[in-house]
What does this fold into?
Amino acid sequence: EQLVESGGGLVQPGGSLRLSCAASGFTFNSYVMSWVRQAPGKGLEWVSDINHDSAITKSADSVKGRFAISRDNIKKTIYLQMNNLKPEDTAVYYCKSSDDVWGQGAQVTVSS
It folds into this structure.
């Protein structure tokens, strides 16, 4: 079972990034998938969930209206579209499955 994130980087405030998380080795479309982040010196913060068929998505208040989670069960990939990024969004972003498989993390840095 493996999750691999990509798409992180450095962006200016107000900019956008899209993270991807590719799954392998498990029945991807059976699981709720999530994004979780960890800012420097802080604990883990849940960002967003998406259920197995994309019918239900949930997001933290801190990102609601700016971030959007989606998934492609054919490609076994989830995405996090991040718009209007703020410096406080700087963190390592992890994808995880509901059976607790985690990716290695993708660094997102928002700075001018």
Notes: The longest strand covers residues 17-24. The beta strands are 2-6, 9-11, 17-24, 33-38, 44-50, 57-59, 67-72, 77-82, 91-97, 106-110. Residues 16 and 54 are 22 Å apart (CA to CA).
